[in-house]
Design brief:
By secondary structure, the protein is of the alpha/beta class. The chain has helices at 2-30, 56-69, 82-90, 103-111, 162-173, 177-182, 190-199, 209-212, 245-255, 258-267, and strands at 45-52, 73-80, 97-99, 121-126, 128-133, 154-157, 184-187, 204-208, 218-223, 232-238, 270-271. It folds into two domains: 45-125 and 233-271, Periplasmic binding protein-like II (D-Maltodextrin-Binding Protein, domain 2, 3-Layer(aba) Sandwich), CATH 3.40.190; 128-223, 3-Layer(aba) Sandwich (D-Maltodextrin-Binding Protein, domain 2), CATH 3.40.190. The strands form two sheets. Strands 2-1-3-10-4-11 form a six-stranded mixed sheet. A five-stranded mixed sheet has the order 7-6-8-5-9. The N and C termini lie far apart (104 Å).
């Protein structure tokens, strides 16, 4: 009889213990998860900016400053002729922002709905200048002098390069384009044009003022008068296919800010 009562007692205790453990488990489930003191990991945004070669030095500087202040942003710059960059975008190359050295290239992308239209803005202006090697002894004092027989080789941008288009307009204004074209070496972008003059491979060349200021191996003869060519404008825009449009807009806003203005003006650009 005692054994029977002891068995019943043990079974009762086991049932009570099981019920207690079950209730405790349910209570734990009902508790709100504890909040972590660790901040949520910020996702890194990686952007590609395609920009005219003449912006290389300024955008490298500004990009480094921006990334230092925005650790979650990485910007890759692709510099080149605006015409070549336009073609890359049209062919589907990854790109978040385009900054051209001429309106023509941006207009072409806009016509194909490849940019976010309300982000387009003319960011900068520039001057077109005639340069000669620093040690030149030729008597080149004007754009008209470039047509003289004493000038054997002229460095200019190619047909799809904005500085080349401005160059043609200038010499057409002076009615000397045919003579100049006959002895012209066509560069893929303004940096190549500048390098030919620096090395003495060309007697003279036509580049942007900002590029001439980066070199101690050339000297500026003069800037082209405003009436000789269309205004040199640098339009910017976010690319429609960009997956990082908010981040792209934020960087464009930075390029219109006070820090960027100081860098651009120091380089010789006109901030619009």
């Amino acid at each position: 009889m005692r054994m029977k009562k002891l068995g019943i007692f043990l079974i009762s205790m086991m049932l009570v213990l099981s019920l207690s453990l079950g209730l405790a488990a349910c209570g734990d489930k009902d508790k709100a998860p504890e909040k972590s003191d660790q901040p949520a990991e910020t996702k890194t945004v990686e952007m590609t900016v395609m920009a005219a070669a003449s912006m290389t030095e300024t955008l490298d500087e500004l990009g480094a400053k921006y990334m230092a202040d925005n650790a979650n942003v990485k910007i890759n710059f692709n510099y080149g002729s605006s015409g070549a960059l336009q073609t890359q975008i049209e062919e589907g190359a990854p790109c978040d922002i385009f900054i051209s050295a001429g309106a023509k290239q941006m207009d072409a992308l806009a016509e194909k709905n490849l940019i976010v239209s309300d982000t387009r803005k003319d960011l900068l202006g520039n001057d077109v200048v005639l340069v000669v090697p620093a040690n030149s002894t030729l008597n080149i004092k004007s754009f008209e002098d470039v047509a003289a027989d004493t000038v054997k080789r002229v460095a200019v941008g190619g047909e799809n390069v904005p500085v080349g288009q401005y160059t043609q307009q200038i010499f057409e204004y002076y009615k000397t384009w045919d003579k100049v074209k006959a002895k012209a070496s066509l560069g893929e972008d303004v940096k190549q044009v500048l390098s030919w003059v620096e090395s003495g491979d060309a007697d003279c060349g036509i580049v942007y003022k900002t590029d001439a200021l980066t070199s101690t191996n050339v000297k500026v003869v003069l800037a082209a008068p405003a009436e000789t060519h269309k205004p040199v404008l640098y339009p910017e825009a976010v690319i429609a296919a960009s997956a990082n449009q908010d981040a792209a807009k934020a960087f464009l806003a930075y390029l219109s800010g006070a820090d960027a203005k100081t860098v651009f003006e120091k380089a010789g650009f006109t901030v619009l």
